[in-house]
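Structure tokens please, single chain.
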Amino acid sequence: MSKRVLIINGHPDPRPDRFVHALADAYQRGALAIGHEVRRIDVGAIDFPLLRSAEEFASGTVPGAIQDCQDSFVWAEHVALFFPLWLGSMPAKLKALLEQVLRPGVAFAAGSGLSHSAKLLSGKSARIVVTMGMPALVYRWYFRAHSLRSLERNVLAYCGFAPVRASVVGSIEAIGPAARQRWLARMKALGVRAR
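Here you go.
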């Protein structure tokens, strides 16, 4: 059964040699091969302003490029989000995009606080794929995957996404060509299943 899949390539550097791009491409190839409808957002290719106040977040003008991204979030049944870990979290430009896109009225009802009915993106699933220099086990066990868990719980689940699954690609600078090919095959298989 085909799904509407939104792929977000959250690496702000558009140079093609970034492994995050290859992972997102592999996921997209898998999704298209099985017949899923796919939209894609490449954060490095979009220009938009930062939000600077709570008032802007709640009721400021939404730039055209961000409106397109909001439409894609609403359209999608499944969102796959790819990014490198920078200083323990997602890159600032990806965070800024999510702040712009997931505003009241799109992601949750305005003025609803923590109400369960406020989750406007309910019924959608998500996959987070994070690359990093440290070993994945160190991130998961020593650092307790703090930024990943925050994104899962405080952003995606808060807006209604469930389930939210994650893949952590560690030691990215040290893995060889064979390991990279295994990760690309894994991403393609996940894209086929839109999972």
